[in-house]
Amino acid sequence: MTYCIHVPSDTTAKALGADRVARLVEFFAEEHKLDMKVSRNSTRGLYWIEPLVEVDTEEGRYGFGPVKEGDIESLFTAEFWKGNVDHPLALGLVEEIPYLKRQERFTFSRLGITDPLSLEDYKANDGFKGLENAIRLSSQQIVDAVKESGLRGRGGAAFPTGIKWQTVLNVESPKNQKYIVCNADEGDSGTFADRLVMECDPFMLIEGMVIAGLAVGATQGYIYCRSEYPLSIENLNQAIKTAYENSFLGANILGSNNHFDLEVRMGAGAYICGEETSLLESLEGKRGLVRAKPPLPAIVGLFGQPTVVNNVLSLAAIPFIMDKGAKAYADVGVGRSRGTLPFQLTGNVKFGGLVELAFGPTLNELMYDFGGGTRSGRPLRAVQVGGPLGAYLHESQWDTSLGYEEFAQKEAVLGHGGVVMFDNTVDMSEQARFSMEFCVAESCGKCTPCRIGSTRGVEVIDRIRSGENVDGNLNLLADLCETMVDGSLCAMGGMTPFPVQSAMKYFREDFVKSTVSTANTEEL
Ligand SMILES: Cc1cc2nc3c(=O)[nH]c(=O)nc-3n(C[C@H](O)[C@H](O)[C@H](O)COP(=O)(O)O)c2cc1C
Ligand code: SF4
Q1: pLDDT tens, 32-44?
Q2: Closest Cα partner for 236 from 202, 262, 212?
Q3: Origin, by domain of life (predicted)?
C-alpha cells in the first residue's frame, strides 16, 4: 500500500518551510523503506497551523501542524502516516477542525484538497460542471442566472455582477470584439484570497472567465495579476496551457462553436492599477492613470471595446452558481449581500487565515470565534476592514453584521474582505498618518485633492502629532478630508479620508495625547 502525505505548496506555506518539510518527509520515507508518496496539494488557508501535513486514512485526512523540519523525526517515530494521533502536533481529522468545519466554502470548496494543476482532481471535484451547463444556455440565460444569484462584485464596490454583464451583452461592439478582464491586482492590506484562487485552484478562475465570455459574447480574456505574485502567474500559465490542450479554451470549447482565448499579464506594481480604468490603461501598455467615468468600461473599455472588468473572487463564484444553481447561492447571506465572502483574517490575530462565510455573522464573531482575539494576548483595540482605504472600527461597532449595507450604516466598508486587527499598543494617529502617506505614494496624480491633499494631510497630521495647535489642525484635517471625499476623481482620493476620519472620531485621544491644545485657528 502506498501511503500518501500531503504538504501544501502555496506561497505562505512555502514561506513557513513547506518545501523543506516535503523534502525531509521524502528523505525519511526512504530511510524507513516506506512506500510513501508526497503530494503537493493546496493550502486549507488555516495559516496558524501551516505547514499542515495531512495523511490519507480510511476515515479521511488526518492533520499534523505546524510542522517544522525538526518535527519530522518524531513524526516518523510516532508512525504518523497511519494517522496515529499520539503526537503533540496531531490535529485529528482535518475536516473536523472547528475553524474549517464552521465555514461555508462555496468558492473555496477544493482548497487544500486538490493538486492545483491537476485537471483530473479539478474535474473529480465538480470542476467544469458549471461550464458544461452554461454551454447549453443562451447568453441571456447565463446573465439571468448571475442576476438571480445576487452576486455583487467582490473587488470592493459591490456592484451587481449580473447588471454589469447585461450592459456588456446589450452594447454593440464597434470592432465586433468584447473583452473579459480579470482584476487580479489584489493590493489591499491583509488580503490574499485572490492569490489563493490563482495559486490553489486556477482552473476555477479559467472556468469563470470562459462562462463570462459566453455570457456577454467576448472571445478574449486577460488576467491582470499583480507582479508580486510569481507563483500565481506560473500556476495560471500552466493551467491555461492544460485548459487549451483539453478543449476548455481556444476554438470549439467542449466541441461547441464557442471560442475563448485567455492570457495572463503582469501588473505594473502600483496600487492604483487595481482601479479598473487605470488597470485598462496599464493593460494597453500605458501609465496607470485613472480615466474619467462615464463612459463605463462596460461600454468603452479595453482598446475602446465593451469590457467586463471583474475581481478574481467575482469570477471564481461563477462556476458554483452555474453548477449548483443561482438559488443555492442566493439562499444564503443577509439583506442584499447574497452568497459568501472569503474573509481574510490578518494583523495581530491569534488564528489568521481564510474564513469563507455566508454574509451575516458579526465582526466580533469573526475576530473572536475564528480569529481567537489578538496574537499578542493584549486587548483588541481597532480593526481595519476593507483594505488601506477602509475605516477603522471601534469596539462599539464590532457587533455589526458582515454585510455591505450593514457596514455602510457604520460608515465602513467590507471591500475585499480583508480584516486587519490591532491590539491596544496601536497609535491611531500614526495609522492615520500612514493612510495619507499611502495615498501620497500611490495617487495616480491626475486630480488635485488626492495628489496635493494627501501630502498636505501628512503635514497636518505631523503637526498634530508634535502637539502644534492641535485643535486647529484637527479642524483643518477634517476640512481637508471632506475636500478629498467630495473633490477626488476616483475612490483612491475619495476613500483615503475614511481611515483618517474614523481614527479621529473614535480614537481622538491618540491625536490629543501629551499635547497642550492652543485652539488657535488663526495661525493656520
Ligand atoms: C484605488 C483602487 C484600487 C483597487 N484595487 C482593486 C484590486 O486590486 N482588485 C479588484 O478587483 N478591484 C480593485 N478595485 C476596484 C475596481 O476598480 C473595480 O471596481 C473592480 O475590479 C470591479 O470588479 P468587481 O465588480 O468584480 O468587484 C480598486 C479600486 C480602487 C479605487
Ligand atoms: S483620486 Fe487620486 S488616484 Fe484617483 S484620479 Fe485623482 S489623483 Fe488619481
Answers
A1: 999 999 999 999 9
A2: 202
A3: Bacteria
